[in-house]
Amino acid sequence: MASKFSLLLLIVFFQSSSWAKSASTLENFIQCVSINSELSVPVITTLFTPNNSSYSSILQSPVFSLRFLEPTVPKPDFIFTPLHDSHVQAAVICAKQFGLHLRVRSGGHDFEGLSFRSESQTPFFLIDLVNLRLINVNIKDETVWVQSGATNGEVYYKISQKSKFHAVPMGTCTSLGIGGHITGGAYGAMLRKHGLAADNAIDALIVDAEGRILDRAAMGEDLFWAIRGGGGGSFGIILWWKIKLVRVPETVTIFNVVKTLEQGGTKIFYKWQEVADNIDEDLFIRAINRVVASGTNSTDRTIMNIYNGVFLGGIDRLLKIMQAGFPELNLTRKDCTEMSWIESANFIGLFPIGTPIEILLQWKSSAVPPALFKSKSDYTKTAIPEIALEGLWKLMLEEDAPTVMMIPYGGMMNRISESAIPFPHRKGIKFMILYQSNWQEGDKNATEHINWTRKVYNYLTPYVSKNPREAYVNYRDLDLGRNRNNISLREARAWGQRYFKGNFERLVRIKTKVDPTNFFRHEQSIPPLTL
């Protein structure tokens, strides 16, 4: 129970906030949280206002997209950092009781910052799940229960300490928060072998719009279907995921091969498009295309095609597969390194080879630091012609720091129905594309960099999926459309069908059933039919 001193102190903090209508409302909210949760410490230790010296560091520390920390972006009126499941439950109950809008953050990687900012609903407060990071590994039944605030890296490490033959098929970025990651599907380097993390989620605990904590049996199969790939922030707050472990070999092989345009890069990349989704499903070859300096003249630049590979097996078998299926890359034994699966998680997360695996325990550890950037996504069903690739390279050379990354599909992704979970990008998809432009703080051309992503996206229109032009919900993109104060189902279909295809209509029906008043909402949340 919060002390009277704590209540008084918070009231003083909030009186200067635009969010507070009266000190009594705030006192009632704080008392409500205390009554409805198992708080064993004063509220002051878990609530942070802009007047608190820790507010900025807590708000900023996990944020991946730095452009949403700029002064003009609306900030939460306070941040609540729960220490227990019941604290999250209480926050929902009390927010609903007093008509307060909330946002929820598990890792801070939302590409449009919607987990910690709000365009349409202000004022608002933030529930940050940073303190909810327990991980319970059960090798006997080959499962792991994970709290939403834990990161991919923490989960990988904890499993590896129990078994070198088990893992989970989650993301390549080690600092992603589990809660939001799996709600969007969650692909990683084993998607061709084992599918998505959401495909392997077998239970969950969620706080629903009524403030109830529900497991799979209690929530029902419709809601459990919706939260595995239907996007975060629409149906409730995920507290825990239970994920089925998959078997991995004792030895895996990684490689990193770089080609430039001068080394025949365009033809090699075209071949990669033809084989990456059809090659042995134990093999994942990611293609990252960047602009680099060429020659001694600093103004000369070229395209560098980087092929990151992870193979679930040894070098000898890998070389046979590559020689038969992708000889154009000219992969040699010296390009390859055998290691454990947990070491390969560091590699595919872009840490240097040899980085100690303990770095995965460092919260927010990432080889890719937070940045100012804009991203967009696409899916392809046919190879992009060489002449179109040459046009893509020219567009990339116009931009300061662009990245165009391709993620191969095929394998298990072809064998799972597009309606099995809301994530629909399955059979027939060759690869996913991520377009991204980065810029430095102080760059006055931010708008031009953002427009570059739109320009390259428009350029590739003839060569990507159509009707709808598909997009990945975890690479959220407000260019596709957004909910405003007067939510329109017709307008929501503009982005909903791109993320979920035919599954969008089922998501709307489930939303209508479990959250008809649209308590959980943001600029691209699933709308109910009643609005």
Account of the 3D structure:
The chain is α+β, with helices and mostly antiparallel strands. Helices cover 30% and strands 19% of the residues. The chain has 17 helices and 18 strands. The strands form four sheets. A seven-stranded antiparallel sheet has the order 15-12-14-13-17-18-16. It has a five-stranded antiparallel sheet with strand order 5-6-10-8-9. It has a four-stranded mixed sheet with strand order 1-2-4-3. Strand 5 and strand 6 (143-147) form a beta hairpin. Helix 1 packs across helix 2 (23-35), helix 2 packs antiparallel against helix 4 (85-98) and helix 5 packs antiparallel against helix 12 (341-348). The longest helix has 14 residues, at 85-98.
**Biggest sheet layout:** 7 strands, antiparallel
Kindly provide the radius of gyration, computed on alpha-carbon positions and rounded to a whole number of angstroms.
23 Å
Low-confidence parts: 1-9, 15-20
Shape: globular
Q: Strand share of the residues?
A: 15-25%
Oligomer: single chain
The order of strands across the largest sheet is 15-12-14-13-17-18-16
Average pLDDT metric: 92
Structural class: alpha+beta
SSE arrangement:
Elements: H1 4-15, H2 23-35, E1 47-48, H3 55-60, E2 79-80, H4 85-98, E3 102-105, E4 125-128, E5 135-138, E6 143-147, H5 152-162, E7 166-167, H6 178-183, H7 191-194, E8 201-207, E9 213-214, H8 216-219, H9 221-227, E10 237-244, E11 246-247, E12 252-260, H10 265-275, E13 283-293, E14 301-311, H11 315-325, E15 336-339, H12 341-348, E16 372-380, H13 386-397, E17 402-408, H14 412-415, E18 431-439, H15 446-459, H16 489-500, H17 503-514
Parallel strand pairs: 2-4, 3-4
Antiparallel strand pairs: 1-2, 5-6, 6-10, 7-11, 8-9, 8-10, 12-14, 12-15, 13-14, 13-17, 16-18, 17-18
Helix pairs in contact: 1-2, 2-4, 5-12
